Fold each of these.
Amino acid sequence: MSVDTPEELEGLQRVGRVVAETIAAVREAAVPGVTTAELDAIAEAVFERHGARSGPILTYDYPGSICLSIDDEIVHGIPGSRVLRAGQLLTIDVAAELDGFHADAATTIAIGEPSPEADRLLAAGRRALAAGIEAARPGATLRDVGAAIEATVEWDGFHVARELTGHGIGRKMHEPPTVFNWPAPFEEASERLTEGLVFTIEPMITAGDPQFAAAADGWTIRSLDGARSTHEEHTVMVRRGGALVLTDSVA
Ligand code: MG
């Protein structure tokens, strides 16, 4: 969506804070020995406390309140009986709806102490997201955002999973435009960013060959070569002086 009124911005900021608070609560509880179902229940409790609803359930009838993806799972891992172990990488991906507004964010964390390689991958993901946010300015194109992201990722020695993208968001969980994490030659990437436009920036990168496939559960997307992955995401609004990040402050 594109924000036209202070009320719309306020609605987005409210749901953005719920998303940020949910990620913080799940991150805090993500220690060795915990199951992903237990983390999902924590997210559900935060949603309930605020009167928010899970975006994936509302929109796709997804089998969990949030997505929890481990190691080579890039996105859409389903919460369940799996027990977290030290050394794993966990992506916490949270989309919520509150009063008709949607926000979406994700982060990847290490369970226990990360190895130096894992640390490098996680840092590359955070840098890629920051580069994308920095490039999201009025007058720039979506291609500029993708170019900034991929250049950062390649510089760090990793690769973007190019078919996985960010998206417009606001009144629905997924809206146009498609936000590529690379300088896509497609016409739609020529779209110029205007003030008020709201979308996600979400580089998904792997430590190996960035090809992937859907698992038998119909949801989980994992790297074909088993390489680990990272996914950092914020919902942002374009404005002069730099994009406003809607999902980085807790209620
Ligand atoms: Mg998203």
Amino acid sequence: MPVRVLPSLLSADFAHLADECARCEAAGASVLHLDVMDAHFVPNLTFGPFIVEALRRSTRLHLDVHLMMTDPLRYVDDFRAAGADAITIHVEAVGPRTMAQAIERVRATGAQVGLALNPDTDPELWFPHFAQVDLVMFMTVYPGFGGQSFIPQVRQRIRATRQAFPHLPIQVDGGINRQTIPLVVADGADRLVCGNAFFKDADPAAFLRWAESIAP
Ligand code: DX5
Ligand code: ZN
């Protein structure tokens, strides 16, 4: 599977969202990563469906919505109606007993379904559900803020998952930059969420080309 960079809007200039979307498109991105935080699942607060709907009117980019929320299922219809193409929920927010129903619930919106795992979460416990989703996302920082340092202990979890699921899209999120991209791509990640590494680069297009040309 080709490696793809997903710019994370959290590092963009929120006073100029339409321009920032255009900058992502011009740099060659096809997917925009959107971080929704509820000030409960994580200690930070960002935005809801209202902003997603405004972005939907501003760009043709595929919108990849990452729900860092304690009760994500309550809002999935709203995010889908706002224009989310993919919706990722955290396994820690759902729990094992109702995971299968939760996946079905997101699937029923019509969006692609993703499962996110925090750095300390063992993916093998969730392997039975991975065949039911469109992507799995490893948090390589504790979620809540951009600009944190990559947690190397997650690498073995990525490798184990890639070994068990050769064709599953594996996304990584947090501290993904020029230093860590060669490592996670070697481990089997193929979708790279980049906040600071993309938006703060002097030449985001060159950064994206470089990252997407790395062979696993
Ligand atoms: C962190 C968010 C990330 C964040 C990544 O909780 O989920 O998507 O924007 O930012 P960087 O790439 O700067 O670590
Ligand atoms: Zn994210």
